[in-house]
């Protein structure tokens, strides 16, 4: 009888131990278990083009097309903005199944209402940053030195990835490595090209700079597709950039691929 009781206790203890395993972890290269790192989405608080009354926002599709890929790959995604708190989102297509899914997700929308401030970001938690586009991306983010520092710490100290989509590439124009070189100098880089901007429009006249011209001036090898919405992107080492919303999903997939190789 005592033997039976001992066996039962051993079995109960074993089951109890197994129930405490973190199911969010994945296999590492040595066959053990490791937690997946997090990805940081960088968004803007800007609601208008510059000081004008023309409304703008973060591009919802560029957020959720990438977000969906990353969370399904097991990564947790956080959002940071220059001021923290609520950020505007727009360019909506509620008929698109992915956009519809997240427009109806209270939990997800809460993330956009409660973004982190740069000071709240624990850099060591992240292995990639992703600069979201939309007209709002041209304001507040590119010149924010705290966000620049976060991105470069992820890139250099964490051996992580810097990525951007469409106008989100405005966020990388000022990024410099520890030796003072632009992160994209001598590298293939992409973003929303001048070819598809309406340069005579009132919104464009509010832009502080041209993404294409800035990246070229600072030594980037800026390339783009002559066809809009062509899913065009560039990968150069741990720098990943996409031309427009059609490349958001692919940029996220490339983030996953590179992280899985580490």
Description:
This protein has 262 residues and is an alpha/beta fold. It has a single domain, classed as Rossmann fold (3-Layer(aba) Sandwich), CATH 3.40.50.880. Helix content is 32%, strand content 16%. The protein has a six-stranded mixed β-sheet with strand order 5-3-7-8-12-11. A two-stranded antiparallel ribbon has the order 1-2. Strands 4-6 form a two-stranded parallel sheet. Helix 5 links the parallel strand 7 and strand 8. Helix 2 (60-72) packs parallel to helix 8.
Topology:
Elements lengths: L1 H18 L5 E3 L5 E3 L2 E5 L15 E2 H13 L3 E5 L8 E2 L6 H7 L2 H8 L12 E6 L13 H13 L3 E5 L22 E2 L12 H4 L5 H7 L3 E2 L10 E4 L2 E4 L5 H14 L1
């Amino acid at each position: 009888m005592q033997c039976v009781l001992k066996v039962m206790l051993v079995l109960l203890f074993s089951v109890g131990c197994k129930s405490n395993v973190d199911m969010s972890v994945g296999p590492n290269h040595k066959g053990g278990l490791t937690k997946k790192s997090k990805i940081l989405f960088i968004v803007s608080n800007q609601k208008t083009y510059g000081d004008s009354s023309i409304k703008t926002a973060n591009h919802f599709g560029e957020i959720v097309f990438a977000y969906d890929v990353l969370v399904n790959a097991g990564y947790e995604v956080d959002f940071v903005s220059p001021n923290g708190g609520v950020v505007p989102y727009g360019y909506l297509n509620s008929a698109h199944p992915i956009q519809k899914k997240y427009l109806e997700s209270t939990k997800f929308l809460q993330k956009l209402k409660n973004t982190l401030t740069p000071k709240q970001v624990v850099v060591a938690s992240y292995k990639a940053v992703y600069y979201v586009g939309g007209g709002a991306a041209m304001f507040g983010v590119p010149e924010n030195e705290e966000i620049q520092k976060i991105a470069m710490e992820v890139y250099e100290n964490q051996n992580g990835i810097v990525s951007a989509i469409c106008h989100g590439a405005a966020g990388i124009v000022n990024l410099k490595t520890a030796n003072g070189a632009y992160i994209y100098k001598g590298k293939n880089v992409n973003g929303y090209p001048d070819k598809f901007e309406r340069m005579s429009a009132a919104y464009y006249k509010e832009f502080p700079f041209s993404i294409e011209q800035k990246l070229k001036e600072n030594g980037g090898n800026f390339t783009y597709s002559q066809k809009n919405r062509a899913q065009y992107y560039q990968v150069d080492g741990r720098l990943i950039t996409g031309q427009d919303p059609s490349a958001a999903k692919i940029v996220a997939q490339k983030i996953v691929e590179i992280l899985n190789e580490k």
